Amino acid sequence: MRRAVALAALSPLPDANPRVGCVIVSTDGSVLAEGYHRGAGTPHAEAATIAQANADGVDLRGATAYVTLEPCAHQGRTPSCARALVAAGVARVVYGQGDPNGAAAGGAGILADAGIAVEQDAELARQGAALNEDWTFSVTHARPVVRWKFAATLDGFSAAADGTSRWITGSTARADVHRLRAQHGAVVVGTGTALADDPQLTVRDTDGTNLPTQPLRVVVGDRDLPADARVLDDAAETLQLRTHDVDAVLEVLHERGIHAVWLEGGPTLAAAFLAAERVDEVLAYVAPAMLGAGRPAAADFGAASMTDLRRFDLVDVTSLVTPADATTPAQTDLRLTLRPLATREES
Prior knowledge:
This protein has helices at residues 2-8, 45-55, 81-88, 107-113, 122-131, 133-141, 171-181, 191-197, 246-255, 267-275, and strands at 21-25, 31-36, 64-69, 92-97, 117-120, 145-152, 157-159, 186-190, 216-220, 238-241, 260-263, 281-286, 295-296, 312-322, 331-340. By secondary structure, the chain is an alpha/beta fold.
């Protein structure tokens, strides 16, 4: 089971499909074959494992398969994994997370109907689900999970009064942003940010080079972008959605198989997502600095009094230290990870 989870962690993130690992063992516990899902359009973990066994001339009849996610029942771009396990002749299947996708669920029933012993293991289910939090959320809510990232001073400003915003946080915090941005299928900004800051919105290495795999760049709003805008370069795909409707944006992205959105747009777009209650997690990078005036992290989203205060649970605090160099003193920024309270509190 531990090996199946380790294999699942090798599956790509982000991807349209869940991360899944599979290990098939003999009656004496020795490993016969193993595999994992390598991304949308490639064989699922079970199919990859069976293919490895076939290539090696290994007979899987009577074996036990450990799979981190319930084998799928449906025929999509790839065949049903449940039926593939039946055809391979395995005698027992232990799976982890139940499949929340209605189109694919039901594999356990196919296996049981074929006379295969089927067991759902609670610990394997917990670990498998932990690898697929965004995918599970997206499948069950019919929209991507939204993580709002912003950088701000101690007094809550994300840009100075003259509009400049580089750099509030140190280079270590900025590298952390790129690491997390890479785990999302889309990075979303408004036209205001695209016009004011001219960001490229790519995932870059510490030396500033773009990584080979990039999230979809999404610009929300009606205003035209200049042809030479960096967000329109060929470093990554860009989609402009000429709407101000938050749910319309999420619907389009969901239809494209995107399970997680990295929201970086300025205060207006952030306010729109907050007002629509479509912020599922906040990544706040707080610098040990103050401005006294400037552009806030979020604009007015309708909180007229303290009874409208939007409260969050603080789930993690991480220190991000940028060492001193010849021109800049050392800086310790904080990354606060917060999630909305289930019910809004009054004070």
